[in-house]
Amino acid sequence: MNERVAIKEYLTQCAELTEASLKKSIPTEWDVPDRLREAMVYSLEAGGKRLRPALVLSAAEAVFGKPALREAALPVACAVEFIHTYSLIHDDLPAMDNDDFRRGKPTNHKVFGEAMAILAGDALLTHAFHLIPQAVRKGGISADAALAIVEDLAKLAGAPGMVGGQVADMLGEQGITSISELEYIHLHKTSDLIVFSVTAGGRIGGATNKQLELLAQYGRNIGLAFQIQDDILDLIGDEKKLGKKTNSDVQQNKVTYPFLIGLEESKAQVERLTQAAKSAVLEAELLAPERLLEIADYLVQRDH
Amino acid sequence: MNERVAIKEYLTQCAELTEASLKKSIPTEWDVPDRLREAMVYSLEAGGKRLRPALVLSAAEAVFGKPALREAALPVACAVEFIHTYSLIHDDLPAMDNDDFRRGKPTNHKVFGEAMAILAGDALLTHAFHLIPQAVRKGGISADAALAIVEDLAKLAGAPGMVGGQVADMLGEQGITSISELEYIHLHKTSDLIVFSVTAGGRIGGATNKQLELLAQYGRNIGLAFQIQDDILDLIGDEKKLGKKTNSDVQQNKVTYPFLIGLEESKAQVERLTQAAKSAVLEAELLAPERLLEIADYLVQRDH
């Protein structure tokens, strides 16, 4: 991955590295009930963009100046994917969104049953925290840095973070009337895990506190832009490229950015957030900011 | 807590310390949706023996030789109670045991709904890992020790630990025919979190690897003894003292130790496990092993 490749190719390479690492992430020597292991692996290997792991790798590289440190960054990249995966399994449950399919495959509880899906989610969430200490062993980051990453993840994925966003989304269904309520949901449900990814990468690369704060700003902005872009694509995207039906938000009466502020203003907002994200990265004076800048643009230009 | 008090009083004091600490364990300045915070606190404050936190405190004290280190041990004691609490909330869900009451109070999902109960469990589980780094800040244990505690908790509460035991229990319902299957369930579903409690306490107290291994043996044995004693009390206990109906295992056709090996042999097994636990503690040559020895006896002699 040293030669200069286009951003799409770069993200594909990050995804491949992540997937190879995910395959080895639950020790084979552990005495885990077969069915539980299957349920965990089923959702871990169900695909997706692996965007969050790519952000861990890219941020580490941006701060450190070259694509080293991968032995430290990959366990953390896997950890965030474990968290993301558990959150999708629990979101899909009958008591929550009650979805039968995700990315064209039956959801976890449709295959393994509801009880197993709850437990597989719990096990994935717990295992994320087993992966982070390995960054010390494999990659030589300090125990202090790894512990800060543990603390960040527990906050950003927990009650004041992703879970809080999920709760606000659930409680607010239908009843949201203001942009600030919608923003709270997206900042926590989506941005917080992206903020974790870039700041954890930053910690691995040896970022200063100032740089970490600017990386967090970058994460908050691209997370929000990503979410608004999702809303826009649901309205005007190409079903073939998206791999799912459009207009589902309208049909479900979901309150979205385009619903609240209109399509054109939503597009303008995505543009503003992307610029703000890039400004934060530039202000951080990182040794190799290019990939983070390219990812910000890529997320807006994507059509799926 | 320096003066010598009886074990029951000592455990009550540990529980009070834990409860005071639990009350402060979710930062008030965090922007958490009110209803989520209520759901988390509802189950955290629903009582229980607080046995696992007491084991963290006792093991730290046993290794260190005196009841210092409490500023380091209390965040970890709370962490294990957060894990225990989340596991009860998820166990009680309709898709799992479908229980309406626990300790005489309506279960979490009966009060807050199923979706919120799932999310409150997720948030409690995640927050456990936010508490452990505080042992470094508040109590001066090393980042290396805290990170080892994180790694232990993620293993012992995760797929090869408590969740694995829960899955085995669920899959094995009705179909268990051997002691070894039943032992697998209890060792993971019950003992693993007790093993975590005593070894985490040991790490805080500065235990050697040999001492940690012996503390783990102690934990495995008292965990199993505790579980068999539960089965025995369900058969021959006093409903008033237990605060619940006896013979529920028989009515639910649950496979228990008395069912498999008979009541007398179960009692003998509890005695053997207790002795083995005490032998391990004595072999560890701890500076103040008394409380751990007393707890092992207390758990067998209890009538509720």
From TrEMBL, chains A, B:
Chemical reaction(s) catalysed: isopentenyl diphosphate + (2E)-geranyl diphosphate = (2E,6E)-farnesyl diphosphate + diphosphate
Keywords: Isoprene biosynthesis, Magnesium, Metal-binding, Transferase
InterPro entries: Isoprenoid_synthase_dom_sf (IPR008949), Polyprenyl_synt (IPR000092), Polyprenyl_synt_CS (IPR033749), Prenyl_diphosphate_synthase (IPR053378)
Any one GO BP annotation for this protein: terpenoid biosynthetic process
Cofactor: Mg(2+)
PROSITE patterns to which the protein is assigned, alphabetical: POLYPRENYL_SYNTHASE_1, POLYPRENYL_SYNTHASE_2
CDD domains: Trans_IPPS_HT
Its EC number(s): 2.5.1.10
Gene Ontology molecular-function annotations: (2E,6E)-farnesyl diphosphate synthase activity; metal ion binding
One Gene Ontology term, aspect cellular component: cytoplasm
Highest taxon in the source lineage: Bacteria
Signal peptide: none
Record-stated family: Belongs to the FPP/GGPP synthase family.
Name of the molecule in the record: Farnesyl diphosphate synthase
Taxon lineage: Bacteria, Bacillati, Bacillota, Bacilli, Bacillales
